[in-house]
Amino acid sequence: MTLEQSILNAVRALPPEKQAEVLKIAESLKQDAETKRPRKSGRGLWEDLGISLSAEDIGEARKEMWGNFPRNDV
């Protein structure tokens, strides 16, 4: 039995008001799938700004941000 057939069988076993709920959810999922765009990478976001970050730059920024973060030394 295919996934589609399993879904149809499950929906058919529901009362009409629950079938309506399933339809609303399915339509919402379909709309979400159609409207999602692929995410740009971080580099793509600032590509036109001429910014160039190295791994060293990122490491320094992380140290600066997290340097005073309290730690539980166990």
The largest pleated sheet is described as:
none
Shape: elongated
Proportion of β residues?
under 5%
Poorly predicted residue ranges = none
Helix-strand category: mainly alpha
Structure summary, number of beta strands: 0
Count of alpha/pi helices? 4
- Mean pLDDT across all amino acids: 86
Structure description:
This protein is an all-alpha fold. It has a domain at 3-35. 62% of the residues lie in helices and 0% in strands. The chain contains 4 helices and no strands. It is elongated, with a radius of gyration of 25 Å. 0% of the residues are buried. The mean pLDDT is 86.
Quick gist of this model?
The protein is mainly alpha-helical. The chain is 62% helix and 0% strand.
Outline the fold blueprint.
Layout: H1 3-12, H2 16-35, H3 42-45, H4 55-66
Based on the model shown, name its key terms:
74 residues; mainly alpha
